[in-house]
Structure formats: structure tokens, C-alpha cells
Automatic annotation (TrEMBL):
Name of the featured protein: 21.7 kDa class VI heat shock protein
Gene responsible for this protein: HSP21.7
Domain of life: Eukaryota
Domain SHSP residue range list: 80-197
Keyword Hydrolase annotated: no
Amino acid sequence: MSPRRRALEVRPEPRKAQKWRVPLYEDVFSSFLARGGETVRRIFGEGSLFSPLLFEKFFDPADAFPLWEFDPEALLLPGHSSAAKSAAINWSQSDNAYFFRSELPAGASNVNVEVALCGDKGRVIEISGKWEEKEAGGENWRNNQWWEHGFVRRLEVPDDADLMKMEACIADDVALEIKLSKNASNSHINDGEMKESGNV
């Protein structure tokens, strides 16, 4: 049975948007995680797309990361089996497109996950959302200590990606999938098809 996919709108962000200006440091994160509840641990815990510990060492998820320059088996946090890592988060590429798939933490699958293009010339994919149900933080929660209210992961877009042909969706309410077509004259990717990573 084919997975159910809910398309996400990919929206451009203003070049000088005032957000993610407060950096998340390791000692601050450790304290936050220690006093946080179950939802916080699911969102930011080991193995989550939004965890600062995703890439071998502490890395602020609000900083753009050149994901496609690395192999997932070499980059993802050690300690999980290869099968578990590839099932949770994976990325790959073909001659025609880049593919990204990540299981969403239980606390993130029930909230509004947003995908935006931002940064210089819009070459950063920004995946964010608000995990806190309360209204605390308001609309400007991204401007301050954002981790107290929401989550983010920012990924650099490869130079040969066609930003006009980017697709994002939630598959079966549990996974985020992104496809970036390449700027290739012989591209024959079907724009209506989300290709699952691992089958490239």
C-alpha cells in the first residue's frame, strides 16, 4: 500500500528575517533537556532530526548544515545500529534529484511542521514548528530562546538544486520527505512523485 502523503507548502522567507538569533549552547541545552518533560526529550533527544546531537558532536540545529556533502552512515550520531539510523533519517541523490526523509518525533508529528527557503538567495531549507501547546512565546518565539517553544533544523541547499521544483510532504503522519530536483537538462523526474530514499 502506498503511503498517504500530505503536501507541505514551501514558502520563501524574507532575506533579513529576524529569527534564530539566540544561539543554543551545549550547557544551556543540557540544562533544558534535564528539566524538560517527555515531549522535550522526544523532540530533542538522541536520534531526533531536531536534536543538537544528531551529527557526531553538538551542533546548533539553527545553524545551516551542508547535509548532502556527507554520507548518512558516516555522519549520523554513533550508538545506533545502521538499520535504525537509516530508518529514522536518510538522504541520498540520483542523477536528477536529491532526496531526504526523516521520521518525526512523536511530539512533532501532531504539530504544524513548516518548510521554508531562507538565507542568502534562499539556499537554506528550514524545517521548524512549535512543540509547546501554550501561547507562551507568541508569534515571535523564533527570535528569542526558541527551543523553549519550538524546534528547527536548517539544511544548506546544494548548488545544483532547482529551488523552483522543491517538494515537501508528511508521509503517513510520521515522516517528513523532501525532494529537490537538480538543474539538469536531461532531468526526467516526475514532479508529482515523491521517491522514497533508499530506493535511489
